[in-house]
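Changelog-adjacent note: as of this version, every example in the card shows the full chain rather than a window. The one below runs 361 residues end to end.
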Amino acid sequence: MSNPYDQLPPSAFWRPAVAERHFSEIGPLWAPKFDIRPDQHVVTFGSCFAQHIGRALRQRGFRWLNTEPPPPTLPEADIRRFNYDSFSCRTGNIYTTSMLFQWVKWALLDEPVPDELWEHEGRWFDPFRPAIEPDGFASAEEALRLRDVTVKAFRHALTSAHRFVFTLGLTECWRNKQHGYEYPLCPGTAAGTFDPEQHEFHNLDVYEVIQDLRETISLLREANGKLRILLTVSPIPLVATNSGQHVMVATMESKSILRAAVSRLVRSRGDTDYFPSYEMINSPAMQGVFFAANRRQVSPMGVEFVMDRFFSCLEQRPSDGPAVSEPAQPAVEQPAQSSTEESASETACEEELLAAFAPGS
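Full-length structure tokens:
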């Protein structure tokens, strides 16, 4: 008796595809919809894990765009400390789809950026990039001016790139009650003061994430018709949760929401794809071998495993055609690894600051 499963390849069945293979031999797990070539400009943003993708692109000679490079006189030791070269401009971590949508509206729709700043002992902190300057800015004017520099750099990245890579990290977020705008971290953690009358917690559901992504991608494609979007979900668990659940349960819920939303979107769009870094690290088939001793950070071996498969799958994909033409006013390219390049496991991750508030820390 014939049925649809008769004609499926071995990769569709757990036993031959997973159970009978060493974890290093499982795959390929990704069939790219579109290519990413060394002659194309690629920008990377999102949660902490996105930094590994940008670093891997640079190391392999791809044209990772940096539209807000560090000042020429900044010592190399301070480049990472002041959050340069982590993403394609100095946004800091963008953990949620709602925060991404907020940044895109500021950049592409010229929506006014709130003028809120946080002052502490004569130093000024940007609530939308609270850890971007570890000691704060010297004045409110400097903080607002450099925020505007980043918004313009973000616009340049979006309109100049051929490929936009974004890593979704969280569903939990903090918002201003009166105005509705979002902060990347809860006020009173990295900087600022928490006020329950002004600040509220919100946990995005799957429908909100889908809507954020749809509206964001619509704006991106309207501004840059050549742009293709590659989404990933960070495999890194939450540092802390305000959901009322155990942090492990909250992590699984958050990542499941993000993964389900991305799946729904990617199925309906030819200009948007998903790379399964989350599955490569978190699947039970991998036996947890790619996590560090704290069971949260991805080890250098895990990062290398994911990035090797990223480029291997790209190499197996047939080319889409001839080389692309250069965009107008190309941004700064960083194909080479800096002499002070971080190790594969190191990332600038603002969320890590929440660990300091755990009992006994």
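Structural remarks: DSSP finds nine helices and eleven strands in the chain.
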